């Protein structure tokens, strides 16, 4: 071969060459926030605001290693998506130098601003996310813009770990043991714990010598440096109601605790920072940001994945995988890519004229964790919460830039967790059905500019109910429905890879989900009545939602209307490429993550999680990346 034959050449693009307009518009958007404004006055964060990409000066760069002019024509492994799972996979498969790895990512490198924990809600309005909207579902998200639920997903090197709230949770022992008991060999708690611990570098004051945490991994897990007095009140109230203080990331995790966060000295620890930064100069690891995969290349005769097609800078490339293609594009794009490539429900694919390579139930299962974020509590005591007007001070910015602590290191007010079993649960033993999340902020703490806008809360609701709280100390306690019985699904919208698929959450279609959430709200109100909160004169803000006026405030009918009005997702969509044994008709991948019926193709990301788990899904995604990498290595003797 002549040397230039090693490099991939762009091909003529015949169709679907440009991305949809929404994404292009967002590329040029710099979010507005008082905290950012103050930060920009400091030399540390100064940058050119007239730049069309407001964050360009402070973006992580991922140039190809020295000596490479472009991507090669083939690699041993192609990993699609540099998110929570994909970053780990690419790092592990390229270690030791035995295999060549191409990591393709649609988004750009993360910016310096995404590193600041308290700005987490800001990025849901930027080009760092895929701005998915759920299809309209009557009677949910009634208080969101156009009554549509918003499902942003991270779009950056680091994926959703670049825009998430950094809560580090692994799931209960029972969750993983149940998954294994359904025929998913190798996925029991004991099995997955090994991989959680492989990644982890814990600095947790309370659990310094715990056997359930490791100090040797790449992913720093820390206590949040900032704690408000309300965090202690939350834990004390929990204790008074009979809950234990626990390490929720131990096998005995049913109880209350301070949050453990993926951060390092107050700075966000994305999976890109943890797994790619130190490895990006490896000669055998090529990372291509701004490169969107549009199709998996599959030989229909042998049913073997042979490579991918992707678009970068308006050019289309096809690159071959000598060993495997691994999809880590997340719970929406991994199934989307499978369907576009002929792997999915036969009837649906045929209705779009897509040649069916493998008939599989891709996208037919979709679970999510919904939450009610609408409770607001006021107090007779001031300076207990994170009012943006107080946080946005030069002193706080300097404190953060010098020491990595202070209010800017807060996860936008999120501080504590409590796993509870409501009085209507039918589960046996310590199996929680609700997670409570203690905070020191409410929807009004930033005057409605960021958090409410980020979740697309409708102005009619915000102005009527929350605006009166602006400038006043107020906070919320959230609840998350851990094991919804309502099941959603997703479908192709068209054969254009740039069209978002149709997403159906099917939220609250099972009445038990509604009653469990109401029981969770009542539990929170009980907590608020205890002395730890009452010593601050804490009271529920009792302004009725305008669309729920027909119900008596506080009745079951009222709370049902309220949760159907603010039906907030905590963005843990899973199961769209469900893992299961061959006997499971709803499975897309086997317990070694191989797509059924196709050779050399795996899915390794949160889309494979088969059941709901009591966890936020970043750490599980990273664990799946670790475990997936080991399985791939084992297959190829690496
Ligand atoms: C606002 C928000 C807050 C959250 N907070 C928390 C939290 O506090 N704690 C927690 O544990 N979890 C949280 N989550 C959820 C968690 O972060 C995600 O579930 C997890 O990161 C998903 O990991 P993944 O590897 O499956 O996918 P992702 O991390 O989403 O990675 C997928 C990657 O693939 C890329 N990609 C997609 N399609 C293509 C394509 N065609 N070509 C190339 N690249 C592609 C994407 O751009 C992305 O980078 C939050 C999520 C959101 C949205």
From TrEMBL:
Essential cofactor(s): FAD
Binding annotation for FAD: 160, 293
UniProt xrefs under Gene3D superfamilies: FAD/NAD(P)-binding domain, Glucose Oxidase, domain 3
Organism, as annotated: Bicyclus anynana (Squinting bush brown butterfly)
GO terms, molecular function: flavin adenine dinucleotide binding; oxidoreductase activity, acting on CH-OH group of donors
Family, as annotated: Belongs to the GMC oxidoreductase family.
Keyword Signal carried by entry: yes
Protein name per the record: Glucose dehydrogenase [FAD, quinone]
PANTHER family the record matches: GLUCOSE-METHANOL-CHOLINE GMC OXIDOREDUCTASE, RE36204P-RELATED
Residues at the active site: 572, 616
């Amino acid at each position: 071969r002549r040397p230039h034959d090693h490099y991939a050449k762009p091909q003529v693009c015949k169709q679907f060459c440009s991305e949809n307009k929404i994404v292009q518009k967002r590329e040029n958007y710099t979010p507005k926030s008082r905290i950012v404004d103050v930060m920009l006055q400091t030399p540390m964060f100064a940058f050119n605001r007239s730049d069309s990409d407001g964050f360009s000066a402070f973006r992580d760069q991922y140039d190809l290693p020295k000596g490479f002019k472009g991507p090669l024509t083939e690699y041993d492994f192609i990993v699609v998506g540099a998110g929570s799972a994909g970053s780990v996979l690419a790092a592990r498969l390229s270690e030791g130098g035995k295999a060549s790895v191409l990591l393709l990512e649609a988004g750009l490198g993360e910016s310096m601003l995404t590193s600041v924990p308290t700005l987490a809600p800001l990025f849901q309005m930027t080009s760092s996310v895929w701005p998915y909207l759920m299809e309209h579902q009557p009677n949910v998200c009634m208080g969101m813009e156009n009554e549509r639920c918003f499902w942003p997903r991270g779009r950056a090197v680091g994926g959703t770990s670049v825009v998430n709230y950094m809560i580090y949770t692994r799931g209960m022992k029972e969750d993983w043991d149940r998954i294994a008991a359904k025929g998913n060999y190798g996925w029991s708690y004991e099995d997955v714990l090994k991989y959680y611990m492989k990644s982890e570098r814990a600095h947790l004051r309370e659990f310094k010598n715990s056997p359930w945490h490791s100090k040797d991994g790449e992913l720093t897990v820390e206590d949040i440096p900032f704690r408000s007095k309300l965090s202690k009140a939350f834990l004390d109230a929990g204790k008074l109601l009979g809950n234990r203080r626990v390490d929720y990331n131990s096998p005995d995790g049913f109880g209350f605790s301070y949050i453990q966060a993926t951060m390092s000295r107050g700075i966000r620890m994305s999976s890109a920072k943890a797994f790619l930064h130190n490895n990006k100069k490896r000669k055998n690891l090529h990372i291509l940001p701004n490169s969107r995969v549009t199709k998996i290349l599959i030989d229909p005769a042998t049913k073997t994945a042979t490579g991918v097609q992707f678009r970068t800078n308006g050019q289309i490339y096809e690159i071959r995988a000598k060993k495997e293609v691994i999809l880590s594009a997340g719970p929406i794009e991994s199934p989307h890519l499978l369907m576009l490539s002929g792997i999915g429900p036969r009837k649906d694919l045929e209705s779009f004229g897509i040649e069916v390579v493998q008939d599989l139930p891709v996208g037919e299962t979709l679970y999510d964790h919904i939450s009610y974020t609408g409770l607001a509590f006021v107090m007779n005591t001031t300076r207990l919460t994170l009012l943006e007007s107080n946080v946005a001070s030069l002193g706080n910015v300097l404190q953060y830039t010098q020491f990595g602590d202070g209010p800017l290191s807060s996860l936008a007010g999120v501080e504590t967790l409590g796993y509870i079993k409501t009085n209507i649960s039918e589960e046996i033993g310590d199996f929680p059905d609700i997670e409570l999340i203690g905070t020191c902020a409410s929807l009004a703490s930033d005057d409605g500019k960021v958090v409410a806008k980020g979740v697309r809360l409708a102005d009619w609701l915000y102005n009527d109910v929350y605006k009166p709280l602006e400038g006043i100390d107020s906070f919320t306690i959230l609840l998350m429905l851990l094991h919804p019985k309502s099941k959603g699904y997703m479908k192709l919208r068209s054969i254009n890879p740039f069209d978002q698929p149709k997403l159906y959450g099917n939220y609250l279609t099972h009445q038990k989900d509604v009653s469990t959430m109401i029981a969770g709200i009542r539990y929170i109100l009980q907590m608020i009545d205890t002395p730890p909160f009452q010593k601050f004169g804490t009271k529920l803000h009792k302004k009725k939602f305008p669309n729920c006026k027909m119900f008596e405030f506080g009745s079951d009918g009222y709370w049902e209307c309220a949760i159907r009005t603010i039906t907030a997702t905590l963005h843990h969509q899973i199961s769209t490429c469900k893992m299961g044994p061959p006997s499971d008709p709803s499975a897309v991948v086997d317990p070694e993550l191989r797509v059924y019926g196709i050779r050399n193709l795996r899915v390794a990301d949160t889309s494979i999680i088969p059941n709901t788990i009591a966890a936020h899904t970043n750490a599980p995604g990273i664990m799946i990346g670790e475990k997936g990498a080991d399985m791939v290595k084992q297959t190829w003797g690496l």
